[in-house]
Each structure stands twice: as structure tokens, then as C-alpha cells.
TrEMBL record:
InterPro entries from the UniProt entry: DUF5004 (IPR032168)
One Pfam family, short name: DUF5004
Protein's name according to its UniProt entry: DUF5004 domain-containing protein
Organism superkingdom: Bacteria
Length: 173
């Protein structure tokens, strides 16, 4: 059975989309983020890979003829579904990559743009004519960050489950 979930565009899944129009009703894309990085932002530079997904509710996403619902959703994902990374560069360039480093992934995705992180841990990404804002929590040694949100899942039985979910990304560089 096809796992219907969210392919963990994670940060994107928890974001608010901002697009504005001018007087001519034409879409005006947000400006790219620019400027020197703050100390907090410098700690976020590098590559971050999805390393954990935990929901408040036990959910069975695997079609394995066994009732094995779990709050650890990460272990229920295929290698392609787990292949999510973010790259935050010192020049404020940003990339979101999905299914790019595992062979034969069907749903490869890539999005590029610019990024910024506020002193209150609000991550802003400008990409594809939109601005997405996500609250993140970076751990004390800046080796992992998490983001949370209510996500709608369809379990192996076709039941819809909405559960508070925490996504963890670990720094690899």
C-alpha cells in the first residue's frame, strides 16, 4: 500500500506562505534575503539531514500485514522518504533536497533560495516566489534542530490520524 504522508517537506509543511500582489493584481515575489549572518545564523550554516520523526500518537504506516503502530515514524519510512536535507550557506543561499542521495528515488525534489534565522529561532526561507516561516529549536551544541507541527497521516488501514509530530535534523558538516 502506498504510504500517503507528507514526504517530509517538513519545514515546508509547517510554514506560512506569503505572496503579495501589487495594484495591477500581479504576483510580486518576496525579495531574496541578504546581509551578513548573525552569530546564531553562523551556527546554522552547513548541511542538515533528517534524522528522526516522532509523533504523539502511535501510527502504523507500513503495509506488512502486522499491526505495529509506533510513535517512531522515521523507522517506518523507506530510504528514499528519509533522504531529506537542507543546506544553509554563509552567503545566505539555501537548498532543500529530497531523494537526491539515495539511488532510484521516484520523487526527487530540489528547491533553492535564500534563508535567515531570527534571534527567536524563526527560520525564514525565500524560494519559488514565496516566503516560508518556521519556528525551529536548535540544541545547545548546534548539532541538531527540531520543528513541530500537526501533521495529517493516512495509516495502513486508510484511517486519517492528525498527530503532533517532531522532525529532527542533524548537522553533517
Amino acid at each position: 500500500m502506498k504510504k500517503s504522508i507528507f514526504l517530509v517537506k517538513s519545514l515546508m509543511a509547517f510554514s506560512i506562505l506569503f505572496v503579495s500582489c501589487d495594484d495591477d493584481n500581479e504576483i510580486k515575489c518576496p525579495d531574496a534575503l541578504t546581509g551578513e549572518l548573525s552569530t546564531i545564523e553562523t551556527d546554522l550554516t552547513g548541511t542538515w539531514v533528517l534524522s528522526d520523526i516522532v509523533s504523539e500518537d502511535a501510527i502504523d504506516l507500513t503495509d506488512d500485514d502486522t499491526d505495529n503502530a509506533s510513535m517512531d515514524l522515521y523507522t517506518q519510512y523507506t530510504e528514499c522518504q528519509k533522504d531529506i536535507s537542507y543546506e544553509f550557506d554563509a552567503d545566505r543561499s539555501y537548498a532543500f533536497l529530497a531523494g537526491k542521495s539515495v539511488a532510484d528515488c521516484d520523487n526527487e525534489q530540489e528547491s533553492v533560495g535564500t534563508w535567515g534565522l531570527s534571534a527567536t529561532s524563526v527560520l525564514t526561507v525565500v524560494s519559488n516566489c514565496s516566503s516560508q516561516i518556521t519556528n525551529i529549536e536548535v540544541n545547545d551544541d548546534s548539532t541538531a534542530f527540531t520543528t513541530n507541527g500537526n501533521i495529517q497521516y493516512v495509516d495502513v488501514n486508510g484511517d486519517v490520524v492528525i498527530s503532533e509530530t517532531t522532525f529532527t535534523y542533524s548537522k553533517v558538516e
